[in-house]
Design brief:
37% of the residues lie in helices and 20% in strands. It is built from four helices and four strands; from the N terminus they run βααββααβ. The strands form two sheets. It has a two-stranded antiparallel ribbon with strand order 1-4. A two-stranded antiparallel sheet has the order 2-3.
Length: 94
């Protein structure tokens, strides 16, 4: 989840979205990708406006994604535009 800095323009936010959405084509260990903006009416988002969900088969595939040069390039695009970020890893129990 991202909370962008107040001075980040809509065009800069779109660049982040486009860069993140391009990762599944560049990193083969990604098996699922979703993103969206907060539409909750509860008012509990604490300023977070965007969410990105990336799915992997296993921990090794997730680790390969984190170490991938395309991920590093993406981080360079987003890092100075985020005010806050929450990264939450979990495995679905079946």
């Amino acid at each position: 989840m991202y909370k962008f800095k107040d001075d980040v323009t809509p065009a800069q936010v779109q660049e982040v979205i486009d860069a993140f959405a391009g990762l599944p084509k560049r990193i083969p260990t990604i098996i699922g990708f979703e993103h969206g903006t907060n539409v909750s009416k509860e008012g509990k988002s604490e300023g977070f406006t965007h969410i990105f969900v990336v799915t992997f088969k296993n921990e090794a595939d997730r680790d390969a994604y984190i170490a991938h040069p395309a991920h590093d390039a993406y981080v360079k695009v987003v890092r100075d535009r985020r005010d806050k970020v929450v990264v939450f890893d979990y495995w679905v129990e079946r």
